[in-house]
Write a structure and sequence with these properties.
Layout: H1 8-16, E1 23-24, E2 33-44, E3 47-58, E4 62-66, H2 73-79, E5 90-98, E6 101-102, H3 110-116, E7 117-120, H4 131-141, H5 147-160, H6 164-167, H7 180-192, E8 198-202, H8 210-223, E9 228-232, H9 236-242, E10 245-250, E11 253-259, H10 260-265, H11 270-276
Parallel strand pairs: 1-11, 4-9, 4-10, 7-8, 8-9
Antiparallel strand pairs: 2-3, 2-5, 5-6, 10-11
Helix pairs in contact: 4-5, 4-7, 5-7, 7-8
The chain binds adenosine-5'-diphosphate and magnesium ion.
Magnesium ion binds next to α2.
Length: 281
């Protein structure tokens, strides 16, 4: 965050972070990227949430975004399906492309964009409807009405989200009766139902216990390849376990972006090293 009213707590971070340049050792070219940011900045009024992000995200991979609280992880993630547009008085600079199209072009169809780029939030947020209706909600909006098609889709999405065996006899019961971990897998299944290319996850396990967390991590590994996953996590072990590439954000900037193993074992930037060794954040 670049803000003249920086709080005391953030001052330490500012001193620890001299984030003027980006180290990108991923070798991912724009041609190979499904998501590509070029000098992309996001502003809340005059306040800068992320500044001049340059980042190419590989199709079919899992990319983790880590960094101290308030460094712009969610801002960047939520920019990828323009859900931040719901906040008044925001604007962007630079380019953010998905599938080669600048999603901030005036003629971008937001319904199509959000169908292609699904999102899973920190707290599981199933609709207060049945398990079945949660999954068919998006497809029905897309005009799918055939009962057999919807039934097959429900089974396929629940299978893919590793939830089918647990709920197959309770499809018409309320989603709110499921455990937190099951609800989060249902939210993933609901996202899969609209056949996205990209799934954004903002700290998807922070409200879950270790067992439910492990199941979501297994699921992420299962889904990668078919889907491109971008996950914000405050848990560095989680980033190390599930991601192929990791981006370290600090004070609204991308500081270092590398193959996950390399970033955690041999970071290039001192700021990254200080963060991953627990010196700040
Ligand atoms: N709705 C908002 N209005 C104004 N400022 C915001 C809003 N959301 C986030 N910010 C600011 O943008 C910066 C980045 O926030 P965020 O992306 O939520 O960080 P992170 O996810 O890394 O914790 C923070 O300084 C935060 O206060
Ligand atoms: Mg956040």
């Amino acid at each position: 965050m670049i803000d003249t009213n920086t709080k005391d707590q953030n001052k330490t971070i500012k001193i620890a972070c001299n984030c003027q340049r980006v180290t990108d050792n991923t070798g991912i070219s724009e041609q190979n990227a499904i998501i590509s940011a070029k000098d992309f900045s996001f502003f809340y009024g005059t306040k800068c949430g992320v500044s001049k992000i340059n980042m190419n995200i590989q199709a079919g991979s899992v990319t983790a975004i880590i960094g101290p609280s308030g460094c712009g992880k969610s801002t960047f993630l939520r920019s990828i399906n323009r859900i931040n547009d719901l906040i008044a008085n925001t604007h962007t600079e630079g380019v953010l492309s998905v599938g080669g199209q600048n999603i901030y072009d005036v003629n971008t169809n937001l319904v199509n964009l959000r169908q292609q780029v699904g999102m899973v939030f920190q707290r599981p947020n199933p609709f207060a409807k049945s398990i079945y209706d949660n999954i068919t909600y998006g497809p029905k909006l897309q005009g799918i009405r055939n009962r057999a098609t919807l039934d097959n889709l429900v089974e396929k999405c629940l299978q893919d989200a590793a939830l089918w065996d647990e709920v197959k006899d309770d499809l018409h019961k309320s989603a709110l009766a499921l455990s937190g971990g099951q609800q989060q897998r249902l939210c993933i299944a609901r996202t899969l139902a609209t056949k996205p290319k990209v799934i954004l996850m903002d700290e998807p396990c922070s409200a879950l216990d270790p067992l439910a967390t492990a199941r979501i991590e297994d699921l992420i590994l299962k889904l990668k390849g078919t889907y491109t996953i971008v996950i914000v996590t405050h848990n560095m072990q989680q980033a190390a376990r599930v991601s192929d590439q990791t981006a370290f954000f600090c004070m609204g900037r991308l500081v270092e972006y590398d193959i996950t193993e390399k970033l955690f074992t041999n970071p290039h930037e001192k700021e990254t090293e200080d963060y991953i060794t627990g010196r700040f954040g």
